[in-house]
Amino acid sequence: MYVLYVSFETLEPLDAYIEGEVDFSTTFFYESTKSDVEEFKVEEVYDEETNELFGYTKSYGVLCTLEDIDYKSILGVLGGFSNEDGMFISGRVYFIEPKSNIVYHIYDNRGLDVVSPNKESIFYLYREFNQWILNYDKEQIDKTFSGMS
After folding, report:
1. CB within 8 A of 130, min separation 6: which ones?
2. Angstrom distance (rounded) from CA 57 to CA 45
């Protein structure tokens, strides 16, 4: 699988610094994989009003196996059911299964997004977890999978 982590880093420390934020690659990757985590994209972010450079969006990725990362802790911290009190990840984490092209993005304790360029590859998830689909998404998602069995 491919793990993608996207973070935002300000130039100046924010006034409301929140304790408990962890470094993603050093916290959740085992020693054998830490050196494989690669920063591959950096984008400048400018203040909308002043047009001054405010910070950077940085993207990191690694091709690995489930045995290479502590995915249970990642999901626990993101989903809010971790045993680590006060620990948080400020960026976005995506798990990408390259063979099926399925992308999993757990955003917080309310849920996750699952996407794929091929609806057949996620149809089993639609059938199995249909009751989990949020009401405001249900009509559009049902249309996407209509006619499949």
Report:
1. none
2. 7
Q: What does the pLDDT look like over 136-149, one tens digit per residue?
A: 999 999 999 998 87
CB atoms within 10 A of CB 74: 21
Helix, strand, coil % in the chain, rounded to nearest 5:
30, 35, 35
No. of helices (H) and no. of strands (E), the chain = 5, 6
Q: How far apart are CA 80 and CA 3, in angstroms?
A: 20
Residue 142 CB neighbours (<10 A): 12
For residues 145 and 149, give the distance between their C-alpha atoms in angstroms, rounded to a whole number: 9
* Per-residue pLDDT tens digits for 24-55: 877 888 888 888 888 889 999 999 999 999 88
Residue 115 parent element (H or E): strand 111-115
Question: Helices marked H in the chain — which ranges?
Answer: 24-28, 31-34, 71-79, 123-128, 135-145
Backbone angles phi, psi at 44, to 5 degrees: -75, 145
Q: CB atoms < 10 A from the CB of 39, how many?
A: 12
Say if residues 68 and 33 touch (Cβ distance below 8 Å). Answer: yes
